[in-house]
Design brief:
By secondary structure, this protein is α/β, with parallel strands linked by helices. It folds into two domains: 201 residues, Transcription Regulator spoIIAA; 77 residues, Arc Repressor Mutant, subunit A, CATH 1.10.10.920. It is built from 14 helices and 13 strands.
């Protein structure tokens, strides 16, 4: 797998047209199962084939039970300067429900160890809207996170996907999902507590202190180009989207046989417009009317103006000159609003 990933990096060294790289992200799985020498070999391959910004953000996704003092020290030495830790919750009952392999004590301990290793850019994931999760219990989770004095966190509502164990348990009434009203209360509590503690709610699910927004995810939301490497990885160059084979076995075989290991979709003007709306509207920077006109043409510009007026009148989108952003109430309806603004 490592050999194939490094070969793909070389094969795709021209995909970003010589752009200076400001973010390298190890994620979309559990890259912390790799040892530090393996991670370093990938970093070195990237540096060999691309121009990397001296202040590039280099993030590693990891689980609390993967981290120990030596690993963290070594990660720091090989150039990892940001950790994304899948905490999910600081409550043991929540963690058991989500079938996580770590407990609350390990969640706390790994963050303390990361700080001792002098990581000063740490983000964690939290989940709300869990069955039997009261708003008070959710507040305690947030308080624990605040006490750790980290710089960034992401918070996601529990989603029930089809053909999962959770969906099966709900169908059999062995698990009772949380009422939507309580999930909304969780979101409102989250936004309020974050703001009171100097976190900036810069994207619907993401909160950062000033200077600690995720460079990597911000690039997605700002419609910037990116290169994804490895099985299932996606890439975007402005006019097309490309995704690699999901099967590890097929990916390895195809890369090493110099055969096509990916599929490509050329994006129409309407698709590019829709992607811009979907990503930009989720952020505090919002949608720029002038950008729509310049990038997608007069027809898209007129369509957006016509469709968006209804949401402005409902108080779910606020307009400031040529800029449109979701209101606090609008954030609860982000997907529905985006869909209504899409060109279909």
């Amino acid at each position: 797998m490592l050999k194939s990933i490094k070969k793909e990096i070389e094969l795709r060294k021209f995909y970003l047209n010589g752009a200076t790289i400001s973010s390298i992200y190890f994620g979309g799985g559990t890259p912390s199962i790799l040892n530090n020498e393996e991670i370093e070999s990938i970093i070195q391959t990237i540096y060999h084939h691309f121009t990397i910004d001296i202040n590039a953000e280099i993030t590693l996704e990891c689980n609390p039970d993967d981290l120990d003092k030596k690993m963290l020290t070594d990660l720091k030495e090989i150039g990892i300067n940001r950790l994304s830790i899948g905490i999910q919750s600081f409550d043991d009952d929540d963690l058991k429900f989500m079938n996580r392999s770590h407990n609350a004590k390990e969640a706390l301990e790994c963050i303390h160890l990361a700080k001792e290793a002098e990581f000063n850019n740490i983000t964690i994931d939290l989940i709300y809207g869990l069955p039997n999760q009261s708003n008070e219990k959710w507040k305690q989770n947030l308080k624990q996170m605040l006490d750790l004095n980290i710089q960034h966190f992401s918070a996601y509502a529990l989603t029930v996907e089809p053909k999962t164990v959770l969906k099966h348990l709900i169908d059999k009434q062995k698990v009772i999902p949380l009422d939507d009203k309580i999930t909304v209360e969780h979101f409102n509590t989250l936004a309020q507590i974050a703001t009171e503690n100097d976190f900036i709610h810069y994207e619907i699910s993401n909160f950062g202190k000033q200077g600690f927004f995720s460079n990597h995810n911000t690039a997605y939301w700002k419609n910037q180009h990116y290169l994804g490497v490895g099985p299932s990885a996606h890439s975007f160059n402005g006019t097309s989207r490309q995704w690699n084979l999901a099967s590890n076995k097929q990916y390895i075989e195809m890369v090493n046989a110099n055969n096509a290991y990916f599929e490509i979709e050329q994006l129409s003007n309407a698709q590019q417009y829709n992607e811009y709306i979907f990503t930009a509207l989720r952020t505090m920077w919002g949608v720029e009317l002038d950008y729509i006109k310049t990038q997608f043409g007069a027809t898209a510009h007129q369509y957006f103006e016509k469709q968006v007026s209804n949401w402005v009148n409902q108080g779910k989108i606020k307009q400031l000159e040529n800029n449109y952003t979701l209101t606090s109430r609008g954030k609860l309806y982000a997907d529905a609003i985006s869909s209504d603004l899409f060109i279909v």
